[in-house]
Design goal:
Length: 351
């Protein structure tokens, strides 16, 4: 029996609805396959926690998380109560950085049963590798000068090490897929970081003569995600570009509510973290209508990471079967609630 200790942080808003749903599904698939079990330890770190304690997690929060095999997170943020930069940098981004989760993998593919807004061919299957630790997300040297002429200064940090690591990861994945890497650039408008990014991309590509490469400016690339996503295999992008591209990747599948993500620690020193692409969706929180598929597919990515690819594949197949059968939430054209969709997935898993 393989047993896993998982730290669970439901977070805010719909995170508190889709995380329990995904854990029920995870338990069901573990039961069906046998030989694998999970113990979940729940951490209520969130904007509620912030209002009670003045911080998003306790001072020893990271120490506590360190001993788990993986972290399963819902979403963080309740901007009406806590400013986003405070809640996110106090929890989600803090964990990504301190635990050196330097790569964010975000797949997008044609998903059976989902209507896509695409006009062209919809048989796409792509993987965005998002640099997850630096880039445009930086506190270094930034500040706001107040006074009559207010100025906000925001630096971006692109290290050779961080850039190369993300790009190399993309090439490695491409070798196991269809052998093509697209780099998201913007070297026509951003004069330091993006020419540097292009140079590193070119340098790394020398080590992978069997992999085809293309560089596309992020503006055009965003348009191509809508007009011809089927041409992409692996796409590598900086932190911000990857963030934006993956919301597009989600919506071309059918909804922001279905896309999964994995924040990967590469050096084995810290746990990796699994959380969907979507946020806490305050506009629908508490209504029981959030789409659980993003969180459930995220559980599949956690299964893959733990070495249970076959179980993960089975899980995704069942979720697609259920979607195709018409049991779905309102964001993807159904009438189902979070609980109904989850129940249907569990029933079909056990069939
Ligand atoms: P969002 O992803 O929460 O919501 C965008 C839109 O998509 C909303 O209309 C929402 O209802 C819908 N949506 C999202 N997930 C859905 C689901 N599972 N089912 C059905 N509909 C869904 O993005 P936002 O509104 O920009 O952000 C809300 C809060 O979440 C903010 O505080 C933001 O900072 C935070 N956020 C957190 C994460 C994270 O923790 N990983 C990610 C993104 C945003
Ligand atoms: C995501 C989110 C976060 C990000 C925000 C909430 C800081 O949008 O995980 O996609 O930009 O990384
Ligand atoms: Mn995002």
């Amino acid at each position: 029996m393989k047993h896993y200790e998982i730290a669970v942080i439901p977070g805010d808003g719909i995170g508190k609805e889709v995380v329990p749903a995904a854990l029920d599904v995870l338990d069901a698939i573990a039961e069906v396959h046998g030989g694998i079990s999970f113990k979940y330890t729940n951490f209520p770190w969130s904007c509620d926690y912030f209002e009670q304690h003045g911080k998003m997690m306790p001072d020893n929060g990271l120490e506590t998380l360190q001993n788990f095999e993986a972290i399963f997170l819902g979403a963080v943020g309740d901007p009406q109560r806590v400013p986003d930069h405070v809640s996110l940098w106090g929890l989600l981004i803090k964990i990504r950085r301190e635990f050196e989760q330097v790569i964010n993998i975000r797949p997008a593919k044609y998903f059976r049963g989902l209507d896509t807004p695409l006009k062209g061919p919809n048989d796409f299957d792509l993987l965005v590798v998002r640099e997850n630790s630096e880039g445009e997300y930086s506190e270094i040297g930034g500040r706001i000068h107040r006074g009559d002429d207010e100025i906000a200064i925001q630096n971006a940090v692109f290290t050779r090490k961080g850039t190369e690591r993300a790009i190399r990861y993309a090439f490695e994945l491409a070798q196991k897929r269809r052998g093509h890497v697209t780099s998201a650039t913007k070297s026509n408008g951003i004069v330091y970081s993006m020419p540097f990014w292009d140079q590193v991309f070119k340098d790394v590509s020398q080590d992978y003569p069997g992999v085809q490469t293309t560089s596309v400016h992020i503006d055009a690339l965003s348009a191509f995600f809508v007009s011809k996503p089927h041409v992409f295999d692996v796409v590598v992008a900086s932190n911000l570009f990857g963030d934006i591209l993956t919301d597009i990747g989600a919506v071309i599948m059918g909804s922001i509510g279905v896309a999964p993500a994995a924040n990967i620690n590469l050096n084995g020193k810290y746990p990796s973290m699994f959380e969907p692409v979507h946020g806490s969706a305050p506009d629908i929180a508490g209504q029981g209508i959030a789409n659980p598929i993003g969180q459930i597919w995220t559980a599949k990515m956690m299964l893959d990471h733990l070495g249970h690819q076959e179980i993960g594949q089975h899980l995704l197949k069942v979720v697609e079967d259920v979607t195709q059968s018409g049991v779905k939430t309102t964001d993807i054209g159904g009438t189902g609630t979070t609980k109904q969709v989850t129940h249907e997935i569990i029933c079909r898993l056990k069939r």
